[in-house]
Amino acid sequence: MIEVEKKGEGKKGSEAEEVKEILGAVSAQVPALIKGIIGSVFSEEAGRDMGKAAGAFYKELKESGIPDDVAVEMTENYIGMFTSLGDVLKQAVGGKGKHVKISKLRKESEEGTGADMAQKIKEKMAETEEEE
Amino acid sequence: MVRIRTILSITTSIVRILGSLFALWATFDWKVRRTRKAFEKELVKQGMSKEDARRISAQYKTLKNQLTSTLVNSIRT
To answer: Which of left, alpha, beta for A66 (phi over 0: left; psi -120 to 50: alpha)?
Structure first.
C-alpha cells in the first residue's frame, strides 16, 4: 500500500518536473517570438521603409497625372493591404481557414458555369469535410 | 523539498511570461507611435499633405488593434 502511494507520488513528481521544464522553455521562447513579430512590423525602420514604398507609389501616381484625392485614396488602399496581415493572423490563430475554404468552395459551386464544374466542387467539398 | 522547489520554479516561469507580455503590451503604443511618425515623415517627403499622411498612417493603429485582440483572444481560449 505504501509502495503504491510512493509510486503515485513519483509519477506526480515527474509530471511536475515536466511542467517545470516546459514552462521554462515557453517563458523564454514565447515572449521573444511575439517581440520579434511586433518588431518586424512596428519599428522606426519598418515604418520608414513602408513610408518610402507608399511615398514612391503616391509620387508615381501624381506624376502620371492622377488627381491628388484619387492618388491619396489609392495609396490608402495600397497600405490597407498591409493591415490584412492582421486578418491572416486572426485566421491562423482562430483556425478559421477551414471554414473560409469551405465557404469559398460553396460559393464557387453556386456561381459555377457548368454542371460538371459544380459536381467536381461538391465532391471536393465532401472530401474536405471528410478530412476534418 | 524537491516539490516546493518545482512549484517555485513553475511560479517563477509563469510570472516571467506574464511580466514579459505586460512589458510588450506597455511598450506597444510607443512603438506604434514611432512607426507612424517615421511613416508619415516619408510620405510628407514625397509631397503628401500632413493630414493625408496622418489619415493613411492610421492603418497602423488598426493593425495594432487587430493584433492585440488576436493575442488576447488566443490567451483567453
So the answer is: beta
The owner of cell 516539490 is B3
Q: Find how far residue B69's CA is from the centre of its chain.
A: 11
Break chain B into its structural domains and give their ranges: 2-76
Per-residue pLDDT of chain A (132 residues), as tens digits, is 455 555 555 666 677 778 878 888 888 888 888 888 888 889 999 999 999 999 999 999 999 999 999 999 999 999 988 777 767 766 776 655 445 555 555 555 555 555 565 666 667 677 766 666
User: Is the ipTM here above 0.90?
Assistant: no
- Tell me how long chain B is: 77
Give me the residues of A, 75-114, that contact B with CB < 8 A: 75-76, 79-80, 82-83, 85-87, 89-90, 93-94
A34 touches chain B (CB under 8 A): yes
All 3 cell numbers of residue A63? 506624376
